[in-house]
## 1
Amino acid sequence: MKEGHSPDVLKMETGRDKLRRWLRTEKLGNTPGVVLLVLAGVGISAAIAAAGLKAGLLVIAACAGLPVAYAVVVYPRFGILLLMFMAFFLFYFIRMGIDFPLGTLLDGIQGLLILGFLMQQKARPEWGIFRNPVSYLILAWIGYNLLQVFNPWAESRMAWVYTVRSVAVVMLMYFVFLYQVRSLRFVRTVIHTWLAFAFMGALYALKQEFIGFKESEFAHMSSDPLLTSLLYIDGHWRKYSIFSDPVAFSYNMAAATMICLAIASGKVSATKRIVLAVLACTYLGSMLYSGTRGAYVLIPAGLALFGILRFNRAILVFMTGAALVLGVLILVPTSNPTLYRFQTAFKPSTDASFNVRQLNHKKIQPDIQRHPLGGGLGSTGMWGVRFSPGSFLAGFPPDSGYLRVAVELGWIGLLLFCCLVFTMLNTGIDKFYRIRNPELKSYCLAMTLVIFVLGIGNYPQEALVQFPSSINFYLAISLIVVCGRLDRPPQTPLNRN
């Protein structure tokens, strides 16, 4: 017996060595492996005989799902791309009639990414990369949402349970992205993937416009009179492509257009500029068929910030031409319902829905002022109707992202959220002027414009609550910080020569 070891320890070590030999060396090509496969085959057969086809499908899903889950944890870059894919195409798969909790699957991918992040942080701790104002404010925002469980004015704690999960998990993705995106090559891959998925969405919207909706889509739109009234306006169906609704579709097209504009303004070849111009025109053209007036304003707003940050003679000529084209589109007489709806976006005083929203804002202001912590997470909208029916806030329409924050989290929460958005923009602008690598500089500008247009779009609509915008928003700010980190270090007196 070895000195210092008990027989039990030796026996445990021998058993571990034997298991390692079975699995790693012999790869179950032995008697225990045969027994295991026979037992698995008998168990699967019995399950299918008892439960039918559903059990077989679950077995297939498990066989495919376990390797994918392993890949998401161990290979986080694959997990990030898979998350982007699911965020973009989630509602398309739902409308296909897939009988599977896809929303839970998306939450699971995020959970696995967080698990992989924590495991890698334990093995290779790098907490220093999170030391920036955005990280601190995101943590403060998550903490404030968690503390809402003690909100004395909250009508329902269950509404908080259902709501805080999506708020906290999605925001934690910022830390995952910030840690796992480590190379210019992967930054490029993420942005190209983003543009490719957006392009698929634009093409599908054009298909809906010029070829028509699928029968299942049309049945869904016609099933609810309220939904029909929102989608069928002036004799024309609003298009939503692969997204949840026309608002999410149009906002994602506006964000993708800003990315193309920022990259094309950098040092790229003429061929790439042509490709980016085609993509941008496709995004803009398809966006018009969404009928979302709030999104139409995002383009000139994004162009204004772009012109300020990239100001030079060529940009000035481009901005002048864009302003002239926009002015003609706004003022030209037309009977086209799509173009007319675009024009009304720049004449809010004549828009009946805009005036109704202004009245709702005035109506709710005294309640916000009386409740600095708000009415609690989930007190308005769908969760309010479900968990606190009959309450004042449950019947209030949260038609603005900032208004929802003010109503549910109070003016303290609104102030904190506005500070967060401001800090994101300030970080993006600061990094843009500091970065020297031309490609990283363009990507930083692109992500800053995305945050800017989504931040503005969150006023007339709820821009940050639906996939993929909720993922893309925090992906954008993480890429800004990553671009600054990947840029060459600033010169010092010791390395200047």
## 2
Amino acid sequence: MTWNAYEVIFRLRSPLHIGYSKVGNLQRTRPYVTGRSLWGALTMRLTRDAAQGSGPATDSSKYQEFGAQVHEYLAFTYFYPALQSGNDYQVAWPWDNETLFRRRFLSSYQGTALSYPQQSAAEGMLHEVEFISPYTVDTGQPVFLRGYVFEKTGCKLDWRPACERLQLGGERGYGWGKIDLIDIIDIGDCVNVKLFGGVAQFEQNSSDNVLISLPADKWLLAHTAPGQTNLVGELEPLVGREWRANSYVGQYVVFNGVYFTPGSIVKSSCKVAVKEFGIWHIISSS
């Protein structure tokens, strides 16, 4: 199989919350869009588009069907916040200067449930949700999301039109996670194509997975399974909720494994395969 690469640029139009962890009453956000979040948004949009004219898209088996097709025919990187500089979009890596990144890109919203008879806040219901701001907090610049989508030969999914109407992350019922598609740049075959301006490099191949080569002492740009290569960074379990047949929305909990987090360092050059949800698996090292 051969793969085509596309650089995709979104503009963030509302707060974006990518669920991470809870500290006290604060729901923290990840500072990037995971592959699972993009997979979920594409699956939802493709399923609902296909159901137009035939009633509401409430059949969970259809979501499973389109989700499996996205896994089979598409692969993607994680998407990172970026600022426009001329005709380019410069990614702001969260691990370069964590304090500056948080001060510039992250904010939070506080809320609580009300106890109407007492006209006061309900006890124990105060919560705070962290989000990636659609404008930089310090300078008011528009915030973009930059990443890559890979399409396998024979793909018939209408993923490009779907990208024009995606909504990412949590709190979507409050209007969060709205994005505008700015551009989809067809890079062509993945032959020695630079990733994010040279952080890594795509490799064309005939396998069922996109392959990426990573030089020594570079960052991992996605969650990566531990392997024989020496990696330095934090480990975390990846757990998500899915909609499965005969269960309520979010009731089915999936454990995907324990992985090194983005921003970890690979100490020797290696080659990785991009698997489901954009997760990296090391297949060789030197």
## 3
Amino acid sequence: MSKGRILAVDDEHFFRVLYEDLLGEAGYTVRAVEDGRAALALLEREPFDVVVMDVIMPGEDGVRTAERIKDRWPDLEILLVTSLRDVKVAVSAMQRGASDFLTKPLNPDELLAVVARLFERSAAAREHHRLLDENIFYLESLGVVHRALCILETLDLDEVGEAILERVLAETSAQGGILWLPTEDNPDRLVLHTVRGLVSTEREPREISWSTHALAPWFERGESVPEPPPGGEAGEDLAQGNAFYIPFLEGRSPGMLIKISDKVAGNQFGAEDLRKATILGPLAVTAVRNARRHRRLARRSIRDPRTQAYDIEFFKNYLQAEIHKSARFRRTFSLLALRITNIADLRKTHDPALLRNRVEDLVGGIARAIREIDVLGRHHDDEFFILLPETDYLGSLVLKR
């Protein structure tokens, strides 16, 4: 395994071979070029840890080349090699950013010792930058989370969805956002839940299958991926794009899927935008889980244990939310009204307790026959309503029959 990469720059073939042999035998990977122009061109294409460079060369000398290298790669260590009469030039170059210098004729042991010392400095600088980047990342992440705590302030699922999209759009400077949530009975099936900003819902799918979607490999890894252009391949141009899907996982299961689009000022989304959005993932998934748990608890508290019918006030609130979704997202729903039209006659001929039991058995049977997402509400002893989300008129007729 190589100790590191060294770029040797000298116009004399003898010294280029010397560097390659001596430093190569010491375990370094060495590339050698003949002048400053070739050195700058190679640095643009390949990474190096240390540059060993002659001071006096035809064309652009080592001092000027060192200045240009430091301007472009300020952390790169530069060792200048010069003759005794050019020591002042080398010292001047060190004042402008070069790391050290040696004089010709070279002492092999001294060269290896100086190069090793420069590699230690380079490693220490990289570690310093890594720790600095980690601290900056931590502080930025803390800021994103702090700004997103409002997501946890409500237990209403619709408000949670709005808060999540609002925060994601703010962090990424996106002008449009869409949120799909997995259904509770089938996490692989995600349904459109919230839309915000410049989005045409007619162009977006109401349902997405997590495992069979064209971008499923990215979803399952929890990786952001650009929306493929018309006729383009999935996953093209991963660095940036005008619209991105951002999947959030709950463990290994689908947590939610967000699509952002149209970055402000016509720019493209970059890695920093996606990183900020991803930071919100655990908080957003927790907020949705809490809201759903609260809704289940609320339903139990206002649900008749025998008939499974909801209190009419809860039913009205649920119906109002469904009407809002239908108007905003062009969803369909149906409403069935059930009335026991001969209840007055039955009360005259039946024992009250027996009649109540028979009505409860009837309504309980209906509750067991409808889907989990359907909502059964009880108005009076003889009047009930069934809300059927995502159901058209024909579907309601089938259930009615």
## 4
Amino acid sequence: MQHEKVRDILIAIGQQVCEKVHHSLVHQSIEELSAVHEETAEDTIYQIDRDVESIILPALSRHAAELRGIILIAEGIGDQETVVLPEAMPAEATAIRILIDPIDGTRGIMYDKRSAFFLAGAAPNHGPQTSLLDTEVAVMVELPTSRSVLSDTFWAIKGQGAHGFTRNLETQVEKKRPITPTKSSTILGGFAQISRFFPPGKDILAQIEEKLIATLLPEPPENRAIIFEDQYISTGGQLYEMLVGHDRFVADLRASLYRRLKSEGHWIGLICHPYDVSAHLIGMEAGLTITAADGSPLNPPLDTTHPVDWIAYGNPTIRAQVEPVLQQLLRDYHLTTKE
């Protein structure tokens, strides 16, 4: 794989998406941006999602031949789960699989509430079994609200660390953006949370979080907020908060929760998919620990439908404190198949 070339292409696409979204926020109404374009098996595709398709496909098509063929796997792009570029090339002959979430955090950004993110990961094509741990290049580009002219871009090439810069959307000036995961040895006094932004089962996740905190901090000081939480409805946003040291721990366990609820005859809600964690390599290269629900390496297939749980720890010390307690609670609440 031409790692630097792939990185530069994905950054350029992310920046074009950023500019398109920012322009739309300034010049279109919330009603226009939040209009439903279609319902898919993975998620609802809004007009703001569809608007960026005209950027991604042409950009990748221009470079597909020189990259020796691309299989694009993306939410809301094209009529099928995968798109082969150049179109005449057999899928098995392509060199690269690229997993993209054009706008991760659509609901937050289309109401101009909070930054969303363009997320992308590229892996050598090992056929349908290609998975997240095969990713060798990852990029994430912040899509800020209309009130901000600053956009952060983070990227990683496997084995070369994580890097970032901030771009001013008005002047195009770029400035280095440090990536600094927390060095704290405890979650006490910091942001740490289990994601529970969509029903059903929010009560179950809250109970797990309460017991986790009570076990880790059995005698908390009175009249103090011992833990803060941030229910950022964007997986990319959650990863961003971990990368810059704002958050110390986050767990998204909706897939396991809904598997339990479905077995009990209840309805299930929206879950995380592989494209939501397509920039996972950046976190790993930055020194975060990111696992599946059972503590094993996070390694879903590169598709748009596989259910994904993920847990991120800001550093090894926090993982050593939190993980044993959390794993026991997941067993107690029947959210894991590992006994």
